[in-house]
Structures are given as C-alpha cells and as structure tokens.
Amino acid sequence: MKIRAHAPGRCGIVGNPTDMYGGCVLSCTTQERAFCELEPRGEETLFQNEDQHSLVRSKEDLRLRGDKLDILRAAFAYFDIDPGATPVQVRVWTEIPMQAGLAGSTAMLTAIVGAIVRWQNLQFNLYALAETVRKIEARLLGVLCGFQDQHMAVFGGLNFMDFYGKESLEQREDEPLATIEPLTERCSVPPLLLAHTGVQHHSGTVHKSPRQRWEEGDTEVRSGYTRIMALARRGKRALIEQDWQKLGEVMNENHAIVAALGGSGLENDRLIEAALRSGAWGAKLAGAGGGGTIIVLVKDHEKVVQALLDAGAEKLLTPAPRPGLTIEAEN
C-alpha cells in the first residue's frame, strides 16, 4: 500500500507571535503544500528528500545528524518505529519556500506524521495530531515554537485560533486544547499577498530573545504581546465585517509592536514600506522575522505587486484557505 500525505503552509494575518504566549492568531493557509509518500520496500528503509537520501537499518540510524533528513528520523523515533523490521521508502518534497516564515518545515513534518499514522493504523483526532507534531518539533528537533503552525497545517483553512493556557510551551496533560474557529465559510477571504525577501532564517532563533525577555517579566514585551492579542480579536471582527481598512490598521500596529521589540529585519521592513507606499491597507510579518516573508492586505493589486518587485521581493504568493492535512492511500 502506498500512502501519500500532504499539508499546507500558513501565514499569520494578525496576532503572531502570541501563539507562543497563550495568545490568539488570525491565520490563513498557503496554497503551496508539503508532501510525504510512504510505501513498502523489500530491503532497508530509505529516507529521501529532493537532494538527499539515507539508508536506515535500525533505530540507531534514527539519531539526528543535523541535515534535512532529521525531520524523518525524529518522526520515526517519536513513534518508536524500528526501520529494520518493516522496511519502507519514505520520500518528502515541498512547494513551500523553506525557512521563509511560512511554516514549511512544520507542514512537512505534519505530512510525515500523517503518513506514519495511516501506515501504523493509529487513531488520532485533529487536536492530538497537531499536538503530536509540535511535540516532535519542540522535544526531538529542539525548535522553539508556538502552536499556530501545527494547528494550521492539520486543520487548514482560514481560522481564528486561541491558545489560552498554553504559554508555558510544555504541553502538559492538564493544559487546555487550542480553540480553533473556522472562518472560511463565514466571511470573504481578504485580498492578501505574500512577498518573500529571499532571506532564510530559523524561526526558533528569531523567537529566542523575545521569549527570554518574556520569561524574565520584561514589561515592554509582556504589554506588547497583550496588545497584539487584542489586535487579533479586532482583526477577526474586521475580517467578518469585510472592513479592510480596519484590518489593515491592526496589521500595521501588530507589525509596529513586533518591530519595536526587535522582531523584524531590514529586508522585511523594506518590503513593508514599499507595499504601504503603493497604497496597501496593511503589511506585516507573515511569521517570524529576520528575513522570511511579509503578508500584505492589497488595495491595488497591480500597483502593489510592482512595488514589491521593485523593492527586491524574490517571490510572490497568493494565500488562500485550503484543506489541512490530507492522507490518501492506494493498494
């Protein structure tokens, strides 16, 4: 039986990065997806991505090596799978720009987990799947991350998500589950555009300093993130009422707070300024800063596109609500 699983990237419209701090986020999927294909193999287990491969003969071979195949090793190790007992070929690839602030690595890990769950005939609800993906990222791969990425990859669509009670990042058994409010069928999709700076980053690195400051009780960080949580709620209302000017205003304030806390970057700010000068309602980081991707609420599409290209945008994408984790199997 061949199993194919795939999951989307995401872009934070308003609210990020408060998903790391018990906050809330308004978020939409990308149209681009990450894929995992798993099928029986007569010899040793084989892990493959677009430019690497590795034979995996035993659990010893699941030790992390610091390369792009670690994501597969970590997933197999989490589920305590002996790759020598039932050899399979596992291939992963993606349409999502990697290390671009669009949760491409999380989408790939979600697809891998989905394929493993189907292969092993495990029973997981959507919330448990999202929590499992984050446990692998945080505990095995050592990524400092919130909860937005995993829930968007699993649930898909356009969502308002509340992570109240999850600010410790520990994923204790007594923590509440995330609250996921699907908005895809309840409102029009705003005219959004993504612009990638071309600069790659690791979101765990970007988040480290603000997280330390928050844990130390830094009042500037704590009050800033509390304000961003309020902006996310205002953004939800603006979205439902199709008030793009108001949505743009909260996006801009969200970015101003993050930038003041050192969470943006020169490349991000250059593209954001270009978008706003061309008449966009709002523009901000789509995920983590230090490079990555910005999200723009577009008023005049053609004018904004040209302004972003002139400012050095490497790639433009159009986000849209798409299904979350999808698992297909064929005999």
Task: Explain the overall architecture.
With 331 residues, the protein is α+β, with helices and mostly antiparallel strands. The chain has 2 domains: 2-185, Ribosomal Protein S5, domain 2 (2-Layer Sandwich), CATH 3.30.230.10; 192-317, GHMP kinase, C-terminal domain (Alpha-Beta Plaits). The chain has 9 helices and 12 strands. The N and C termini lie close together (4 Å).
Layout of strands and helices, then pairs:
Layout (H helix, E strand, L loop, with lengths): L1 E13 L9 E17 L4 E4 L4 E4 L13 H9 L9 E7 L9 H16 L6 H15 L7 H8 L2 E5 L16 E4 L9 E5 L6 H13 L3 H22 L3 H17 L5 H12 L4 E4 L7 E5 L3 H10 L4 E3 L8 E5 L1
Class derived from helix and strand content = alpha+beta
Stated plainly, the CATH topology of the largest domain is called Ribosomal Protein S5, domain 2
Number of strands: 12
Per CATH, which architecture of the largest domain?
A: 2-Layer Sandwich
Number of domains: 2
Helix proportion = 25-40%
Mean pLDDT: 94
Distance between the ends = 4 Å
Principal-axes geometry comes out as globular
SS summary, helix count: 9
GO molecular function, one term: ATP binding
Protein name: Mevalonate kinase
Domain GHMP kinase C-terminal: 237-308
EC number: 2.7.1.168
